[in-house]
Each structure stands twice: as structure tokens, then as C-alpha cells.
Amino acid sequence: MGQTEIEMTEKEQNELLAMLANRLLNQLTLLQIIEFAKEGSIAMAHQQIADMSDEDKQKNLEMLRKDQMRMQEAMQSPPQPPKN
After folding, report:
1. Which is nearest to 61 in space by CA: 43, 49, 47, 72?
2. pLDDT 10s digits, 30-56
3. Is residue 82 over pLDDT 80?
4. pTM for this predicted structure
5. CA-based torsion, 18, 24, 30, 33: positive or negative
6. Of 45, 40, 71, 69, the residue nearest 57 (C-alpha)
7. Phi, psi torsion values for 20, nearest 5 degrees
8. Which residues contact 36 (CB under 8 A, 6 or more apart)?
9. How far apart, in whole angstroms, are the C-alpha atoms of residue 42 and residue 48?
10. What SS3 string covers the chain?
């Protein structure tokens, strides 16, 4: 019982692909959607770093270090009451 291949036009293939993709998307949980977005963001970040000049890498690294220092300082100092 061999399967016969069904002939489809490119338009039909694209429509079938869109239908199946939408069906799969509708079955995803919010956590799965977030995980896919995270994986995509990480891949895009890798590409951005690869495309960055050494100067831009240095600037971004300096911004990262400053942000990390501020976060560390904020974690160590007691919370201040809001000023009115």
C-alpha cells in the first residue's frame, strides 16, 4: 500500500501551510509562546552581536557593566521612602 503523492499548486501548499501553522499556534500555551519568542530573541541577539563593530560591542559592554553596577547598588541599599 504505497502512498501516492498529491499534486498541489504553490498557492495550495502556502494555504495548507498557513492553515496548519495557525492550528498549531492556537494550540500553544502562553508559556510555549513566550519560550518561542525568547528563543527567537536570543537568535536575533546573536546575529546583532555578529554584525556589530568592535566599537559598538565596546559601548554596549560598558552600558551593560554600568547597568549591572547600578543594579548591585540598588540591591545593597535599603529602600528609600517616596519623596512628595
Report:
1. 49
2. 999 999 999 999 999 999 999 999 999
3. no
4. 0.54
5. negative
6. 45
7. -65, -40
8. 28
9. 10
10. CCCCCCCCCHHHHHHHHHHHHHHHHHHCCHHHHHHHHHHHHHHHHHHHHHHCCHHHHHHHHHHHHHHHHHHHHHHHCCCCCCCC
